[in-house]
Design goal:
CATH class of the largest domain: Alpha Beta
CATH superfamily of the largest domain: NAD(P)-binding Rossmann-like Domain
CATH topology of the largest domain: Rossmann fold
Helix content: 25-40%
Order of helices and strands: EHEHEHEHEHHHEHEEEHEHEHEHEH
Largest sheet: 6 strands, parallel
Radius of gyration: 22 Å
Number of domains: 2
Shape: globular
Strand order of the largest sheet: 7-6-10-11-12-13
Number of strands: 13
Number of helices: 13
Strand content: 15-25%
Oligomer: single chain
Distance between the termini: 16 Å
Amino acid sequence: MKVLANDGISKTGELALTEAGFEVLPNRVAQNHVINFINENNVDILLVRSTTKVRQDIIDACPSLKIIGRGGIGMDNIDVDYAKSKGIKVINTPTASSKSVAELVFGHFFALARFLHESNRLMPLEGETHFEAMKKSFSKAYELSGKTLGVIGFGSIGQEVVKMGIALGMKIKVLTKNPKTRVLTLDFFDGQSLNFEITSTNDMDAFLKDTDFISINTPKTNEYIIDTPQFEKMKDGVYIVNTARGGVINEVTLIDFIESEKVAGAALDVFESEPTPELPLLMNPALSLSPHVGGNTVDAQEKIGAELAEQIIKLQKETIR
């Protein structure tokens, strides 16, 4: 069987597939050429991440496809139900990149709380001439320890964010559509572990009240989770990080509340107009920005490749039986 990993796959995953008898094609095909390539090469398995879109046109035009795999959690770039209705198996790796995304959340939180995003931009330009002025302007920083962390979404990424917040000594709030309870285990280097029972709320007002740091970790939504009414109920000086999807937070309104100083700082790894973020976002000094790299670590890619390969090999064995 031929595999096109169009957005890449780790060496670990590629080796596992090759050893199991699959042919992994080395090509990376532009979106408008995917259909022709699949048909010309009789591709059986298409693996993607967030770049390649697998819509009905590809599914209808490529009868050789048997499996579509998404390296990551969200599958909004794949018409999942339609693919399944055509007898195509659809798989993903829902937990492989969770720790990497959660670490990026805190990377941004630390950058915002200590002005690292801004000082890194200004030091090369003004460090020699305005050192003392910058030292003074960046002195009103905050520790995360003891602050209240609010996490929107309680899936695998949200749970990892909560665990890291607990490890830092933060107070925890979680917001979900329906209240739920999860027992989270923190594992330590010496083999010890601690369990924490966390119950979420569906009360947005209670969630926003007195929350110092907010992390959005939800699937793609059809409407904003955070817009003017939510911003107005936030604590003055709140910090917000969105590593979920563009469109869960109103970016225009976000800028307004940054300018009014209701929001002390925000970080975006995803954007409404991705891959061409709006210039006012890119130029705003109160924003810490990254180009949708939440799950893009060597560690996560190794896990993703290995998990995809494991699932594909398992599906092949089940088919043979």
